[in-house]
Structure formats: C-alpha cells, structure tokens
Amino acid sequence: MAANIAIYSIVFIYGIIVGSFLNVCILRVPLKQTIVSKRSHCMSCGHVLAWYDLFPLFSYIFLRGKCRYCKAKISKQYPIVEFVNGVLAVLCFAFAKFEAYDIKHINQMVLVSKDPYYEVYDWAASVYDFGVIILSCILCSVLIVISVIDWRTFEIPFGANIVILILGLVKLAGTIWADSRYYKIYCNLIEKKPGFFEVLFARGRGLELIMGFFAVSVPLALIYYISKGRAIGGGDVKLMAVAGLFLGWKLILVALIAGCLYGSVIHIIRMKVSGEGKQLAMGPYLSAGIVTALWVGKYIVEWYSGFFS
Ligand SMILES: [Zn+2]
Q1: Once rounded to an integer, what is the mean pLDDT over residues 247-266?
Q2: 49 C-alpha to center of ligand 1: Å?
Q3: Which 3 state secondary structure label does DSSP give 109?
Q4: Which residues pair with 41 in a beta bridge?
Q5: How far is ligand 1, taken at its centre, from the CA of residue 14, in Å?
Q6: How confident is the model at residue 138 (pLDDT cuts 50, 70, 90)?
Q7: What residue segments make up the domains of the chain, in order of their start?
Q8: Ligand 1 mean position, distance from CA 82 (Å)
Q9: From ligand 1's centre to the CA of 260, what distance in Å?
Q10: Is 299 exposed, middle or buried (0-12, 13-18, 19+ CB in 10 A)?
Q11: Residue 183: its pLDDT value, please?
C-alpha cells in the first residue's frame, strides 16, 4: 500500500512537471516559436522566471496567482493544465491497474494458444504493458495541448498529430515485438517452422492497430471532401487517423462515438446558456473520446460484443 502511494505520488509529480512544459507548448506552438531553447518569462513585465517561479502548481499557489516581480495576474490556464496532466497520468496507471507488486514480479502469464492450450510466463509482457502505460501518459499530454490550442484557434497543430503518429508507431513496433516472441516460443513447442507474416501479425493485435489508422479516418476524410471542410476539420481527420493507429480499430470507433456524444451534448448546452456561435472546435471532444477509449474502451467493446455471442 505504502509502495503504491509512493509510486502514484511520483507519477503525479512527473505529471505536473510535464504539464508546465505543456503550457510552454500551448503558448508558443500557435505563434511558431521555439519550445526548447528560450527561457520562460512573465507575459506582462518580461522578467525571466527563476526556477522556483516555475515549480508547477505550487508556485502558482504560493504566489497567489500573481507575478513575483510586477504582480500581474497569471492565467489560470497554467495551474489547470499542470493539474489535469498530473491527474491524467495517475489515471493512466490506475486504469491499467498498475501496482508496486508488478515491478517485483515481472514475469507475466500470456495465453499463446487456445488449441492446444498453451501459456507462457514471459517478462516481455510486463515490459510491453508498462511501455503502453508510459505511451498513454504521453498521448494524454499531447491531447491536452491539442484541446487547448484547438479551443482557442480552431486549429490542431500538425506537429501534435505527428507526435501521436510516432507514439502509435512505437506501440505498433512493441506489439509486434511482444506478440511475435510468444508465437516463436509456441512454434518451437509444436515443432513448426513459422512463416514471416505469421510471426509479424501473430495474435492479430498488430493488424488491429494498422486497421485503426483507417477505420475512422477514411469515412471522416470522405465527409471532409464532400463538405469541402465545413462539416469537419482536416486536423480532426488526421487526429483520428494517428489516434486510431495507437488504439486499434475497435477502440477508435469507441473514441469517435464517445467524442461525438460529448461534443453534441456540451455544445447544445453552451449554445443554450451563452448563445455561442455555431463554430465548433471538435478537438477537445474527440480528445476526450480518445481518452475514454484508452481507459475503458475495452470494457465497452466486451459489453457490446456480449450481445452477439
Ligand atoms: Zn511580471
């Protein structure tokens, strides 16, 4: 228990530290400024900030939301983004049911074949699972950047989609690595010579990811061209392609449905309450849908497929 609290605390602190970097991205990416070399400075007086002014979340609380040097108000966006990123990182670990126990007991049981029934204890399964959690945390961070920027500018930065594409490719490579390992062990057992493509797409999970790239993005791209970009933005289509590669075709469908539900419900409320215009940034809603699918999508898929078995 104590070990779990320690691990989840470390994850949260990493989350808010990454969150303060996300604020820099949110600020500078739409202005096409560099996100690495330039020191952070007060937006009002231009004073370069010291390291203790940059400590995520806490410096905002201690300074009571004001600049130390000129007392100008600091945007609430900074602590909110830091806090949300910390919470999302913790939830990525929690929904994956990660425990301190897993670190000591790295060998995990994998079902390699149902007929003949064959299981193998392998460390690769644990390394894969942990890697997916880390990738999921990064995915959530990129989605925060996309959501805030899209909310403000109605534009999803191309670079953010490229980062998600890289995350998806890394996951695809990891999936093929882990699954082909078990398949080769299995083939050894039944004295079969495995074929190249059998090894490449063993257990079907790698193929599922590749299909995810096209499952939602192709129909959306058609809508984009037919409506000449009025019904949906090009950035949204690209987002659903790269997120689909990360999630696989089943989960990206869940993400689309969840995202559209969030979007329509919240947008109707916003239009009723504040009479806001019809222009709708889909990025935040699609992002929320993607995170939903990431965390609980597999339970939704299991529940849904229960109707057909
Ligand atoms: Zn200042």
Answers
A1: 96
A2: 9
A3: strand
A4: 48
A5: 26
A6: very high
A7: 1-96, 105-309
A8: 20
A9: 41
A10: exposed
A11: 85
Q: How far is the centre of ligand 1, averaged over its atoms, from the C-alpha of 31 (Å)?
A: 20
Distance 143 CA to ligand 1 centre (A): 29
Which of the two residues, 152 and 116, has the higher pLDDT score?
152
What is the three-class DSSP state of 113? strand
Is the CB of residue 243 less than 8 Å from the CB of residue 275?
A: no
Residue 250 pLDDT > 90, yes or no? yes
CA atoms within 13 A on the CB side of 122: 21
13 Cα: distance to centroid of ligand 1 (angstroms): 26
Q: What is the pLDDT of residues 154-205, one digit of tens each?
A: 999 999 999 999 999 999 999 999 999 888 888 888 888 888 888 888 888 9
Q: Are 92 and 137 in contact (CB under 8 A)?
A: yes
How many angstroms is it from 26 CA to the middle of ligand 1?
19
Where helices occur in the chain by DSSP H, the ranges are 2-28, 58-62, 77-95, 100-104, 123-153, 158-189, 196-200, 205-215, 217-226, 234-247, 249-274, 283-305
Distance 53 CA to ligand 1 centre (A): 11
CA 41 to ligand 1 centroid distance, Å: 8
Count of CB atoms within 10 A of residue 266's CB?
Answer: 14
Q: What is the mean pLDDT of residues 59-76?
A: 88
Give the distance (Å) from ligand 1 centre to CA of residue 186.
64
Higher model confidence: residue 86 or residue 189?
A: 86
Q: Compute, in angstroms, the gap from residue 73 CA to the centroid of ligand 1.
A: 8
The answer, yes or no, to whether residue 279 has pLDDT greater than 80, is: no
